[in-house]
Amino acid sequence: MEMNYISLVWELKQDGELFQRKKHIAPLKNSRRSLSLSLSLSRRSPSRRSPSPPTSSLSRRSPSRRSLSGRDSEQQRRDPVNAALDFSHLRSSFISAGKQMAEEAVLGFLEKNEVITDSGEFAVEKGISHEEIVNVIKSLNGFRFVDAQDIKKERWQLTAEGKTYAANGSPEFQLFMAIPSEGISRVELQKKLGDSVFKIGCQQAIKNKWVEMGKSQVSKKVAHVDDNVKAMLVRINDGEALNQEDIDALKRRKLISPQIWKGYSVRKGPNYAPKRRKPATDLTRENLQRGDWKDLQFKEYNFSAKGLPAEGGYLHPLLKVRRQMQMIFLQMGFEEMPTNNYVESSFWNFDALFQPQQHPARDSHDTFFLREPSTTKTLPEDYVERVKQIHESGGHGSRGYGYDWKREEANKNLLRTHTTAVSSRMLYALAQKPFEAKKYYSVDRVFRNEAVDRTHLAEFHQIEGLICDRGLTLGDLQGVLYDFFSRLGMSKLRFKPAYNPYTEPSMEIFGYHEGFKKWVEVGNSGMFRPEMLLPMGLPEDVRVIAWGLSLERPTMILYGIDNIRDLFGHKVDLGLIKSNPICRIGLQ
């Protein structure tokens, strides 16, 4: 407690001396500030008490406070809380003085000049911190004393690695200097420099043709070199400019990073005055008693001002498009599947769909497997046995895959990779009752272990629709797709043969986009294989046609977003959420 207190005293004393040296405020003499300082010094060293200041200086601050004399003075010195309050007042006085000084500098300069072209250069010229200047400019601009225009400059700053090289030299230079004239062994040199410096230094020194790297010996190829990397880093640290080639070289080595500097250019505003007078907001009794109400400048009433806008909830663009997709499905007579289980077993996600256990999609680099709970505990055993048989030896006219199907692989829990896992559950449940035709749809999240880029995320939304009925054909699927996509605004479709483990035949769907003036892939489709449907218990003449597409792609096209990370995730601009237009998909 005592050490923190003393360091605060010293900081304030240093600040006071700094202000005096720059002559920004009057020396702290015979004032309340000098009283605070003397109290702090006496608290720091009780044996060296500073003389009590004149009573009049106390009276100017607060008539109700008594002068420090006798017992009161001793009590004040013993009370660290009061002393801390004195320091707080001193510090706030410095801040207020700095703000006033910055304001006078800006207004005074504009009285004789047309414009302050750069607030940064102005701050350096006046010896005032740029932060103080910026705060004052914002305040003056708000009251229209000045008109301020933003300035942005890109500057370069050293990274942590760059700072190390600027202080100690680049790794290649350190390596060169560590090599004696007769050479040195690689092991000894690495031990001398450390692994990191040795590795980087070898790469750069060989590239610069400074050294000869033998199998066991390292020797110099030149007698003298200059550490240009360190020189460039020092120049950047000192604010000097480099040519673009040098900048690119340092960027590639990640020794510098861009820093955006923000400032202002300032001109006189419509309300400019050499000195700002704070307008009064109220006429008080004291104003009337003193008679100074005649000279007061009152703040004008703004009768057209509106209250704060009422904040409410806003719909994300994905939610708007999702709602319209749901409305289209409902108009076509579909019912929604329950998709609340993000965690699914490998059995329902893969095996029930006739997807072999050695399929690449089931690897950990494509799928998120759960560590806890790692496996499922309940599966319909009779159905599991039929799925195992169709995988191993086939049936219903199929030869199967001819491999040893493992139950432990099917039991693994994962984050579902597609909503077709939900479709398999719904079709199995449908097969346990007397058959009736159904139309199902779902719109929900799925998860895949993919590299994140402008068009891919590890989680996204999948739209899926399926129709289960007797005697369906590929022509029925194409007819439904024409109906569905025409409601999305795409009446021109093309189909391309494709392969899916659980559909045969399968088709990729392409639609002609009138805005892009080209064909774009919009989804995937097919008819579920008998190897998937018959083990469930569905009648042999029942067919299931299905199709799917992502929710993000049509949303990005509709709202002109070219990076999926600007639509979904932590980088989403809240302004987009508040101001995005209505989704017109499906609206006539």
Structure description:
The protein has 588 residues and is of the alpha+beta class. Among the domains are: 7-155 and 264-295, no CATH class; 317-342 and 417-584, Bira Bifunctional Protein, Domain 2 (BirA Bifunctional Protein, domain 2, 2-Layer Sandwich). The chain is 42% helix and 18% strand. It has 23 helices and 15 strands. The protein has helices spanning 2-22, 32-44, 55-61, 70-78, 80-112, 119-126, 130-142, 160-168, 171-178, 186-193, 195-207, 228-237, 244-252, 285-290, 317-331, 346-349, 381-392, 407-410, 420-431, 474-487, 530-533, 552-559, 574-579, and strands at residues 115-116, 146-158, 184-185, 211-213, 217-220, 256-268, 335-336, 343-345, 413-415, 438-447, 459-470, 493-500, 503-513, 518-528, 542-550. The strands form four sheets. It has a seven-stranded mixed beta sheet, with helices on both faces. Helix 5 crosses helix 7. It is flat.
Q: State the major sheet.
A: 7 strands, mixed
- Global geometry: flat
Poorly predicted ranges: 1-71
CATH class of one domain: Alpha Beta
Mean model confidence by pLDDT: 81
Features:
588 residues; alpha+beta; BirA Bifunctional Protein, domain 2; disordered N terminus
Topology:
Blueprint: H1 2-22, H2 32-44, H3 55-61, H4 70-78, H5 80-112, E1 115-116, H6 119-126, H7 130-142, E2 146-158, H8 160-168, H9 171-178, E3 184-185, H10 186-193, H11 195-207, E4 211-213, E5 217-220, H12 228-237, H13 244-252, E6 256-268, H14 285-290, H15 317-331, E7 335-336, E8 343-345, H16 346-349, H17 381-392, H18 407-410, E9 413-415, H19 420-431, E10 438-447, E11 459-470, H20 474-487, E12 493-500, E13 503-513, E14 518-528, H21 530-533, E15 542-550, H22 552-559, H23 574-579
Parallel strand pairs: 7-10
Antiparallel strand pairs: 1-6, 2-6, 3-5, 4-5, 8-9, 10-11, 11-15, 12-13, 13-14, 14-15
Helix pairs in contact: 1-2, 1-5, 2-5, 5-7, 8-12, 9-11, 10-11
